[in-house]
Each structure stands twice: as structure tokens, then as C-alpha cells.
Amino acid sequence: MGGPEIDHLIALLAKLPGMGPRSARRAALKMLQQPEARMLPLASALAEAARAVKVCADCGNLDSRDPCSVCIDQHRDRSVLCVVEGVGDLWALERAMVHHGLYHVLGGTLSALSGVGPEDLNVQTLLARIAEGEVREVILALGATVDGATTAHWLTDLLRPTGVAITRVGQGVPIGGALDVLDDGTLAAALRSRRSA
Ligand code: ZN
User: Fold this and answer.
1) Of 113, 121, 153, 157, which is most buried with the most CB atoms under 10 A?
2) CA–centroid distance, residue 105 to ligand 1 (Å)
3) How far apart are the CA of 39 and the centre of ligand 1, in A?
4) Which pTM does this prediction carry?
């Protein structure tokens, strides 16, 4: 079509979530038609983000600072820790402004099918944070999938001996559903209706 540079660009864009070859071609064309206004700012934003963003050593969030801006926020309730599967879930809860404590990103869920075991999840830092003694409640905000439920049960057993209250988000999370696609009201309801695990 338009040479190897354009093919390469389209191939990279097509790998992004929500993009297929068709939307990748449309996005590439849109940018190529206005390189100064659309393409160069995007290129420098990408390079800047790749350079600046790191994983928070405390919670696993992505931020340009470590510890992240959530973890260093002194207005937050440091006694409540919300455990989520991925950074996307943390961002969804933050956007909805429904949780005013801290977070912990697991980095996945246990999955026999995908070969994800306990050693692949960010749990040692979770146990270390709880051992510091400030945490009173751990909210398990995992998706309503089989793997999410398995992981919640496993975490409940693992955390029980620490003595912290363990709760799970309640109604509103659709069966088979992930958290980061829910609207703000549903997220708020799910968090409000949390129950003891
Ligand atoms: Zn953090």
C-alpha cells in the first residue's frame, strides 16, 4: 500500500487493545494526513511516557513517581487496602472516586489454564504491607470470573492468619465481568455492598 514504514506503523497500532487492522489503518491515515499536529506530539508523548513511567514498588501502580501518587497521598485512609487484578482496575476505581484508601495490584489472577500460579502474583509485598501493622481491612475487588473467585478464596485463606478484616466487593459486578469496564455508579455500588469474605 504505502511503503514499509506505513505497514510497520499499522502493524504496531493493530496490536493495541480495541484496535484491529481496520481501525489501525484509519488511525494511521488520520495521523499521516496531519503529521505535525497529530503524529509528532503522539510520538513524543509515547517516548516521554516510556521514559518516565515506573512500577510503584509498594502497590504495583504505574506512575512517573515511585512510590506512586496514590501511595504518597497523606489524605488517604491507610488502614484500608483494595486488592485489584490489574492497574486498569485501580485506574477505574480512582476515576469513579469510590475508594479512599490504598491499593494493591496483584498483576493477574490464579489460572490453571494460563499457568499462572501464586509465585506469579504480587503477594509477598502484600503480606509485607499488612505485616507493617497499619492495615485493618483488605477489600478483594477481583473480577467475577472463575479465576477471580478462585484467587479471592485463595487470598482469603492466605490472609486469614494476619487478623485483618477481609471483604469482597458485592453486587453489581456481572458474572464473568472485569472491573475496569464497569461504569462509576456500578463500581461504587459494588464497593459499598462489600461483605465479609
Ligand atoms: Zn503505589
Assistant:
1) 121
2) 9
3) 32
4) 0.83
